[in-house]
């Protein structure tokens, strides 16, 4: 797959970006679905630029939306093949956006929802220059068994999930946290009570502060000994 992605962008509120947040939307949506998260987080990160590309393929199940890869059976093998196939296109987009902002890869954060979480985890953990952080809402970790052999860096990861999610059950988050921990990735997770397949306001606020801390280097330091987190946030290690 050799496609050029595009999507809505939000420049740094300060006028000059020193960090880049790339959103990866879910199956059947498009980049407009997540770009408003950047507007919510601008007050916390006024020097962050945000971009939310449309995934590379039109979605058969939602013709007005896009997909990173097709989903037919939600089987682990299918998910793994899908993220592997779409990864080069997302990586190329990330590289071009970093160059556009004049930033090093360490000034990147990836934020995904659902299928976009799968992409963010797969790509972010395999980039030669690890991102500052990865946030995954309501997703899963395809190919966890391959991760220890393929991982290139260990940025701090935050996973959140709604306990009423009937599309991707909350158990997928716990499985992902265990898979990340097995690969030595400092992972924090949070369950939003009463939330279905979406992003709870508590998760949104926790994720914003997590990104602030990660870009400041506080998570990477504190992860060695204690959670860089809040009382309601747990750590897998």
Give your account of this protein's structure.
The longest helix is centred in the middle third of the chain and has 26 residues. The chain has one domain: Rossmann fold. It is an alpha/beta fold and 237 residues long. It is globular, with a radius of gyration of 16 Å. Strand 2, helix 1 and strand 3 form a beta-alpha-beta unit. The protein has an 8-stranded mixed beta sheet, sandwiched between helices. It has a two-stranded antiparallel ribbon with strand order 4-5. The relative contact order is 0.13.
What is the fold's blueprint, element by element?
Layout: E1 9-10, E2 19-24, H1 35-41, E3 48-51, E4 57-59, E5 62-67, H2 76-101, E6 108-113, H3 115-124, E7 133-137, H4 147-150, E8 157-162, H5 171-182, E9 187-192, H6 201-215, H7 218-222, E10 234-236
Parallel strand pairs: 2-3, 2-6, 6-7, 7-8, 8-9
Antiparallel strand pairs: 1-3, 4-5, 9-10
């Amino acid at each position: 797959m050799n496609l050029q992605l595009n999507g809505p962008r939000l420049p740094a509120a300060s006028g000059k970006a020193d960090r880049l947040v790339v959103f990866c939307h879910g199956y059947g949506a498009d980049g407009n679905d997540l770009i408003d998260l950047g507007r919510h987080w601008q007050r916390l990160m006024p020097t962050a630029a945000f971009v939310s590309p449309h995934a590379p393929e039109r979605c058969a199940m939602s013709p007005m939306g896009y997909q990173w890869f097709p989903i037919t059976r939600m089987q682990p093998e299918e998910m793994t093949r899908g993220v592997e196939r779409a990864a080069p296109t997302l990586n190329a987009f990330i590289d071009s956006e970093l160059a556009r902002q004049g930033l090093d890869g360490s000034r990147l954060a990836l934020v995904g929802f659902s299928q976009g979480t799968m992409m963010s985890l797969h790509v972010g953990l395999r980039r030669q220059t690890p991102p500052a952080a990865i946030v995954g809402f309501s997703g899963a970790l395809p190919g966890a068994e391959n991760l220890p052999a393929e991982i290139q860096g260990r940025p701090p990861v935050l996973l959140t999930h709604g306990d009423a999610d009937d599309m991707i059950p909350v158990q997928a988050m716990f499985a992902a946290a265990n898979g990340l921990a097995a690969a030595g990735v400092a992972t924090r997770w949070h369950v939003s009570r009463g939330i279905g397949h979406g992003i709870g306001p508590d998760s949104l606020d926790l994720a914003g502060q997590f990104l602030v801390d990660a870009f400041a280097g506080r998570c990477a330091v504190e992860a060695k000994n204690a959670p860089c987190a809040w009382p309601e946030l747990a750590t897998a290690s």
